[in-house]
Write a structure and sequence with these properties.
The protein contains ten helices and nine strands. With about 280 residues, it is α/β, with parallel strands linked by helices. The protein has a single domain, classed as Vaccinia Virus protein VP39 (Rossmann fold, 3-Layer(aba) Sandwich). Strand 4, helix 7 and strand 5 form a beta-alpha-beta unit. Helix 2 runs antiparallel to helix 8. The chain is globular, with a radius of gyration of 18 Å.
Length: about 280
């Protein structure tokens, strides 16, 4: 099973969001992204002027929250390797390898066309090295050279690994998400320490913010954006059932230390670990 092609437009759009927020290198932005951003901006501007939500702030909240949790994993949980699945034009690999140097190995992975485009952009920046590389990966493939297990197999099992899937799950049906979580848990179980980070769309968060976000994302990808679980507890239980020892789902605004009234507060972040940890009587990462 191959990831749907309609995910690719989101990679261009979010790349433009990161650029305009000052988080990215100009060469990681694309013409397609600028066109999509400009086309969608009137809807976002109207919503913002009316005191409503914005797709840009939603996307920035989830991105910054994942950044914060990845940095925490590097500092406190022995993560020295990162595999970002469906990386698109995300600037995270560029920023984190600049910050941590050779202490961190970062692999950006995507379907062939997007992976090649990302590789060319990083070559222009001069960012590729043994510690920062791009690989072709089909997140929904169970086996073969482009599978999650095969790409992760190039990394050192004696070191901690984090797998990131930002912006992917919403475009997959629930059974595909569950299958991906099982593959992530099985893969991370082969490393000295394993952590998984992703944004997650929840049914109970179907507020005006999420409605606008879903409209915006659906317009970008020209397809459906899925809501998989009613709330955090249901999602956490499913993640643990897939093989993780601990899992939490939390608002992105809290994790990224954004103001509580942030328009991105409807974004939720899933963090799971292959190692259990006790906090306030419940297993958490």
């Amino acid at each position: 099973m191959t990831a749907p092609d309609n995910i690719s437009p989101t990679a261009h759009y979010t790349g433009e969001v990161w650029r305009r927020a000052g988080l990215s290198h100009p060469w990681l932005a694309t013409t397609e992204g600028r066109v999509m951003f400009d086309a969608l901006h009137p809807l976002m501007a109207v919503s913002h002027a009316a005191g409503g939500p914005s797709l840009e702030t939603y996307l920035l909240a989830r991105h910054l929250a994942i950044d914060a949790r990845l940095e925490h994993a590097i500092q406190h949980h022995g993560v020295t390797q990162v595999l970002e699945v469906a990386a698109g034009m995300s600037p995270r690999g560029w920023r984190f390898t600049r910050r941590h140097g050779e202490r961190l190995t970062y692999v950006e992975a995507d379907l062939p066309g997007m992976a090649e485009r990302k590789r060319r952009a990083l070559e222009r920046i001069g960012a590729l090295s043994d510690h920062h590389r791009v690989r072709t990966l089909d997140a929904l493939r169970d086996g073969g050279p482009d599978s999650l297990a095969a790409v992760a197999g190039e990394l050192d099992p004696e070191r901690g690994l984090a797998i990131i899937t930002e912006g992917l799950l919403g475009y997959l049906p629930t059974d595909a998400v569950v299958g991906l979580w099982r593959r992530c848990a099985a893969t991370l179980g082969g490393f000295a320490g394993g952590r998984y980070l992703s944004d997650l769309h929840l049914g109970t968060a179907l507020s005006p913010v999420v409605r606008v976000v879903r409209i915006g994302l659906s317009a970008v990808v020209r397809g459906r954006v899925h809501l998989h679980f009613d709330g955090p507890a249901e999602a956490e239980a499913q993640v643990r059932a897939c093989g993780f020892a601990a899992a939490t789902v939390a608002p992105a605004a809290r994790l990224a230390e954004l103001p509580p009234q942030s328009q991105g507060s409807a974004a939720h972040i899933l963090e799971a670990s292959t190692e259990p940890a006790a906090q306030n009587g419940r297993a958490t990462p």
